[in-house]
């Protein structure tokens, strides 16, 4: 594989998704899709390490990452709360692309100032912003140039001052959260200590997490360092301790370095973080900067750039317009920001081993992002699975979402049994390092948590989408049980897995119910483990295709999108369409590939082409909706490669790629994607007049591939996929469908041993 190291990396634009969606008017099929949810990516341009514990960015307090100009929004375009891009300082541990969770981190705010300490909290205008993977910079309107970079568990700030008789760098240990109603986070306990010679350390307990920092700086000898409380210096004091803080008694507190600065003088602040105390925070900084902290900024920046370049080199694409390459590269970048891996950092169990947090939107991430992470880094994929099992051991259940906060069960209303899909895929891929017998115990026990108890007794539960979740969870658990030789248990689990059918009514759609951020139409086309039976229940291929065609708006007129609230009648009109939400909302992100199971991969090609052309763009407004921790961006990566993972089934559906070819390194092996007949097309206005391309034939490792799928083992095992494209639909993949649980093909073993099937 030729990598051209960094080629994709150079196309990344971290500012994409930081403003409301600003996409050229859609044409054709995409013009009929209607977007109800927040029309903003909710990303930030801050410095991030791939899958690292720490990020750093300018903080205005805006929703939801702390960066930007906009307030909280759940529907339509968000309203600005600031006229300009502002910052009161630079914070750490930002979310990426999430929504509808009111509290976020933004801890340990660092503010360079030439103003008195009383001005702390002022929001200065940001100028000359710049960002690339692992680096963010901006100039405050007071003339201070600010640069940030991060390692896995570290952050380094570099500030270049104008001439000042009293310059300062202020660290606020009390700050956290967002500048919206109920958005602040108040520390419960805290302690900090000035160690002299530019060093300090401290710990704050935020949302049940003890978060520690060790600080080293290269401040000039003439500068003083001291602690402060309530915006007043504590002269002669070297430490502050707070045993119990209430919201009503909180006063800002922290550490400060101050002294005269000549024009162009730089000050470097190096920070190591840990959830296991200040000693480990110091060791984390020392490990990132072996041999001493001197010139820490450039060293950490270079190290992080190299890690980003290593990931980027695993996904090289051929051709593509500059705009399409920028969107693709940035999508890959956004896909690798979360979740956060913090080896040996769990604050809840003392042993060494993996700890993963910021799985904030697992109900989206499990479909697209987790398969991409596991493909690019199987070792980290296995660590994530082990971390999920450890959470179950310590907290009593497999998480539905997991933030850097005590308690993993806060997201149980969104979905059920999602970790089961990831574990089933990991087991079938043969990921190493897990005790699968023990994982199976937790998978089985977890099926009865939350809504699972009612499902186990009645075979149906409301919200009705949880019926599908739990049925899939039983199926995935059966895969592991059968693989471990417990066939009796597997038979029992598979019997429960067939209860997915109870969720559907006679019209081929889900029964009326309540739904989390969606409706019964966009939850009705999930890729179930028994799509053959699901299509039969809907009336067969033609009837199922007709329902899908209506959902995707084939033949429908263009619609009007929502603007800024409050809305007029357009909201009710849009809801009544029961239409595909165009990647603005993720419950239906796999729906385009449902056509594959009805023998219509040509329809998949048409829908995916329209989405890639009109739902993503360059510039700050280049995302149609919340990126949801990278799930949406991962969708774009897979769709552009002509592949789509079917979560929990160790299966990848094949479609027409958006690029002429690709060189991939998945599962540690080289995978080459080659096309003939590919026709280049642009995005947005440049896509006008372009049409979908269709697979005419395919070959895998030199053998004909007459069906539209590969197993995960084939993809991870490496090889060569050759696809012939053409301007008209063909009969490719129309006869042999992707496998379903009710199939009687002996090679598939009822779907439970799909990994053994080879073309």
TrEMBL record:
GO terms for cellular component: cytosol. The keyword Hydrolase applies. SUPFAM superfamilies: Six-hairpin glycosidases. One of its GO terms (biological process) is carbohydrate metabolic process. Residues 12-274 form the Glycosyl hydrolase family 92 N-terminal domain. Keywords: Hydrolase. The keyword Calcium does not apply. InterPro entries: 6-hairpin_glycosidase_sf, GH-type_carb-bd, GH92_N, Glyco_hydro_92, PNGase. Residues 280-727 form the Glycosyl hydrolase family domain. GO terms for molecular function: carbohydrate binding; peptide-N4-(N-acetyl-beta-glucosaminyl)asparagine amidase activity. Pfam families: Glyco_hydro_92 (PF07971), Glyco_hydro_92N (PF17678). Residues 734-759 are annotated as: Disordered. This is Alpha-1,2-mannosidase. It comes from Glycomyces lechevalierae.
């Amino acid at each position: 594989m030729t990598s051209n190291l960094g080629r994709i990396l150079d196309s990344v634009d971290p500012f994409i998704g930081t403003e409301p969606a600003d996409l050229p008017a859609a044409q054709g099929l995409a013009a009929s899709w209607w977007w109800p949810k927040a029309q903003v990516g909710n990303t930030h341009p801050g410095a991030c390490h791939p899958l690292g514990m720490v990020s750093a960015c300018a903080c205005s307090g805006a929703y939801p990452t702390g960066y930007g100009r906009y307030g909280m929004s759940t529907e339509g375009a968000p309203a600005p709360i600031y006229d300009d891009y502002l910052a009161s300082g630079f914070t750490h541990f930002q979310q990426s692309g999430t929504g509808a969770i009111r509290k976020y981190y933004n801890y340990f705010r660092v503010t360079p100032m030439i103003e008195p300490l009383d001005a702390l909290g002022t929001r200065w205008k940001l100028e000359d912003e710049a960002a690339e993977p692992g680096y963010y910079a901006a100039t405050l309107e007071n003339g201070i140039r600010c640069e940030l970079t991060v390692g896995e568990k570290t952050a380094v700030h570099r500030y270049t001052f104008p001439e000042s008789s009293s310059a300062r760098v202020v660290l606020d240990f009390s700050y956290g959260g967002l500048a919206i109603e109920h958005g602040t986070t108040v520390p419960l306990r805290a302690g900090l200590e000035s160690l002299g010679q530019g060093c300090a350390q401290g710990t704050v307990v935020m949302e049940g997490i003890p978060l520690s920092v060790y600080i080293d700086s290269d401040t000039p000898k003439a500068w003083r360092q001291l602690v402060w409380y309530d915006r007043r210096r504590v002269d002669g004091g070297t430490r502050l301790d707070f045993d119990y803080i209430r919201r009503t008694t909180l006063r800002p507190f922290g550490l400060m370095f101050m002294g005269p600065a000549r024009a162009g003088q730089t000050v470097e602040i190096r920070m190591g973080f840990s959830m296991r105390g200040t000693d480990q925070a110091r060791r984390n900084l020392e490990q990132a900067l072996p041999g001493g902290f001197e010139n820490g900024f450039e060293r950490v920046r270079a190290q992080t750039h190299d890690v980003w370049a290593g990931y980027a080199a695993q996904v090289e694409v051929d051709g593509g317009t500059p705009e399409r390459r920028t969107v693709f590269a940035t999508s890959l970048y956004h896909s690798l920001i979360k979740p956060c891996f913090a080896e040996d950092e769990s604050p809840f169990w003392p042993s060494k081993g993996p700890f993963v947090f910021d799985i904030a939107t697992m109900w989206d991430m499990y479909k697209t992002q987790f398969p991409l992470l596991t493909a690019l880094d199987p070792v980290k994929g296995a660590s994530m699975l082990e971390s999920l099992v450890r959470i179950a051991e310590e907290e009593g259940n497999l998480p539905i979402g997991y933030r850097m906060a005590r308690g993993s069960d806060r997201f149980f209303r969104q979905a059920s049994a999602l970790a089961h899909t990831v574990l089933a895929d990991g087991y079938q891929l043969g990921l190493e390092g897990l005790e699968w017998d023990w994982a199976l115990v937790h998978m089985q026990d977890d099926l009865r948590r939350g809504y699972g108890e009612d499902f186990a007794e009645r075979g149906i539960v409301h919200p009705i989408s949880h019926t599908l979740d739990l049925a899939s969870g039983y199926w995935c658990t059966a895969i592991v049980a059968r693989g471990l030789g417990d066939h009796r248990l597997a038979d029992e689990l598979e019997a429960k897995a067939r209860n997915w059918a109870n969720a559907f009514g006679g019209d081929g759609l889900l029964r009326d119910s309540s739904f989390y951020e969606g409706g019964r139409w966009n939850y009705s086309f999930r890729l179930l483990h028994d799509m053959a039976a699901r299509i039969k229940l809907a009336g067969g291929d033609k009837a199922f295709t007709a329902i899908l065609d209506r959902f995707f708006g084939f033949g429908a007129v263009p619609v009007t999108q929502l603007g800024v609230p409050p809305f007029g009648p357009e909201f009710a009109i849009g809801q009544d369409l029961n239409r595909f939400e165009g990647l603005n909302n993720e419950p239906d992100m796999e729906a385009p590939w449902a056509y594959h199971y009805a023998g219509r991969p040509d329809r998949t090609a048409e829908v995916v082409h329209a989405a890639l052309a009109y739902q993503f763009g360059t510039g700050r407004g280049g995302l149609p909706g919340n990126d949801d921790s990278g799930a949406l961006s991962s969708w774009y990566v897979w769709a552009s490669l002509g592949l789509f993972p079917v979560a929990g089934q160790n299966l990848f559906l094949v479609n027409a790629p958006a690029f002429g070819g690709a060189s991939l390194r998945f599962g540690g092996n080289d995978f080459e994607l080659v096309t003939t007949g590919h026709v280049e097309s642009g995005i947005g206005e440049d896509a006008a007049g372009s049409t979908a391309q269709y697979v005419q034939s395919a070959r895998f490792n030199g053998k004909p591939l007459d069906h539209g799928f590969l197993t995960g083992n084939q993809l991870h095992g490496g090889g060569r996929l050759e696809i012939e494209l053409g301007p008209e639909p063909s009969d490719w993949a129309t006869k042999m469908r992707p496998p379903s649980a009710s199939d009687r093909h002996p090679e598939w073993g009822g779907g439970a041993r799909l990994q053994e099937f080879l073309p």
